[in-house]
Write a sequence for this structure.
């Protein structure tokens, strides 16, 4: 659903629709086998959906469909748009392990978010449940990877924050006693200040 509540994307069998609460009407978007997950951009124009054939982006105004990658897998795929509707974060299965990616709808490029701290390769461990700040700068996600941040090797699921501007990944879920606490998932990421608020409320500190 869009932030203003006007548009909602939904799946009905093998058909994908967008509901307009203002005109109280639905618009057919596309039909595909194996439709499972969908999300609509804040401006109501872009719709991302996963089907048997893969993950796709539908531009309603342009009438175009673009392949983003393979079909989503797992129960926490993400599919969150930035406030300007340009970026979307999601979870992709790579070598039998979920990884977090960011797709740039304007540039048509994918960026691996959950990469190792010392290289651009995928981190060793499951990463999922991504969320993105409205300005598109920060991506928060849950991960049990042991090489996202130097020195964090216990494999306990935690919340990580990726800064697209600096390229730095920060572990948020560390207690005042230096112990990583198991995390559920990030949500409502509005800014770095909000990320720090999560840590404060949970008795955590940013590492």
């Amino acid at each position: 659903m869009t932030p203003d509540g006007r548009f909602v994307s939904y799946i009905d069998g093998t058909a994908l629709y967008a509901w307009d609460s203002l005109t109280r009407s639905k618009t057919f978007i596309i039909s595909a086998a194996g439709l499972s997950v969908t999300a609509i951009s804040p401006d109501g124009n872009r719709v991302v959906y996963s089907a048997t054939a893969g993950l796709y982006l539908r531009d309603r105004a342009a009438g175009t469909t673009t392949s983003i990658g393979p079909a989503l897998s797992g129960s926490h795929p993400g599919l969150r748009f930035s406030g300007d509707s340009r970026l979307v974060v999601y979870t992709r299965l790579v070598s039998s392990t979920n990884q977090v990616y960011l797709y740039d709808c304007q540039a048509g490029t994918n960026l691996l978010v959950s990469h190792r701290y010392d290289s651009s390769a995928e981190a060793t461990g499951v990463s999922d449940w991504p969320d993105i700040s409205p300005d598109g700068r920060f991506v928060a996600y849950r991960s049990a990877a042991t090489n996202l941040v130097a020195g964090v090797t216990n494999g306990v699921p935690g919340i990580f924050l990726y800064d697209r501007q600096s390229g730095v990944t920060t572990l948020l879920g560390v207690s005042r006693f230096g112990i990583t606490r198991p995390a559920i998932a990030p949500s409502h990421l509005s800014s770095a200040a909000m990320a720090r608020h999560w840590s404060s409320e949970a008795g955590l500190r940013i590492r």
